[in-house]
Amino acid sequence: MNSTEENIIPIKENTARRGRNFFNGIMMFANHIAVIALLISYFAPYVSPENFWYIAFFGLAYPLFVLVNLLFVIYWGIQFKKQMLYSLLIIFGGWLHLQEYLQINLTEKPDKPLNTIKVMSYNVRLFDLYKWSNKIDTRNNMLELIKNENPDIICLQEFSSSDNSLQYNNLDTLIKIQKSKNTHIEYTGKVNKTNKYGVAIFTVYPIISKGKIIFDKHSNNICIYSDLLIDKDTVRVYNVHLQSIHLGYEDYKFVDDLMKNHETEELEKSKNILKRIKRAFIKRSTQTELVSEHIAKSPHPVIICGDFNDPPVSYSYHTISENLKDAFIESGEGLGRSYIGKFPSLRIDYILHSKQFMAYDFRTINQELSDHFPICCLLHKN
Questions:
Q1: Residue ranges per domain, the chain?
Q2: Which helix (H) or strand (E) holds 55?
Q3: What percent of the chain is predicted at pLDDT more than 90?
Q4: What global pTM score does this model have?
Q5: CATH topology for the 117-381 domain
Q6: In 3D, which of 120, 298, 299 has the Cα closest to residue 202?
């Protein structure tokens, strides 16, 4: 090799090295942004959207920020660079949030104790009254699912029933087909002249008192509670349905078009969806505080079921779950997603309970009959 060729090779190597360093500089800048976004999301559970609603969006996007930071860990790890520790440490700094979304249990399941209480929570989406599923047997399949699970306590959100139609008299049908025959139902609106909707508690245990927490006289969302007599002890069961986003047909069509890469008038429709999400964040914060204050004053151990319409990294979940245990964290496995609608799958349905109980065998039942999966678990009093 002559001296000219020897001079050319180092020049090429230096140019390639400068190119890599320049690109890594850009990636490091992007890494900083990803880390900052993830750190901000950690504050979402502690800041009321009523005071600062922007931060709630960061909490909503927490899984995305974790994923992006993991990609940076992989990117730097492939190059054997210590920068991989940057995102990795920030992710594990929020370990408590991570386990609210994902449970990995490598140990054997404990034996089922005696005298357990089987609890189920399910947003039944009006039992597919409007045939959203495009299947004629969805309602019957939902009822069959509940019959087969046959829990001791069932909390249903978006429950609907008709007094005048045998086909849609879900109340009488449920009482007939399963063992939980004692009921507490609060209707918050009408679908039509004969069909009402709201929330419901069905249970095998005697109900010794009932109550409700009204959020707003114009709201269809509500929280009800029943005091149950269980083995000579009184347990208070809450069924919570917090504020929904209430997207309209055009909003869902816009989301569908985006997912299918169809052309659409993005700006105005995006603004409309963001306004609805913002309004729901703020309303949920007020509702959440009412429920949390009521739970704190309960004279009895509590079980809370419901559709919070918020993921774990949120003000709603953090406020209501304070000083309580989460059945999914205790005994669940895998991803805890429960919502299966148009937006990304999230865990927004929960079973929480007082520390006097232990949870076993938390399950998300993988049947797509509603836009929510039903969830259930076994509770045993310590």
A1: 3-93, 117-381
A2: helix 54-60
A3: 69
A4: 0.89
A5: Deoxyribonuclease I; Chain A (3.60.10)
A6: 120
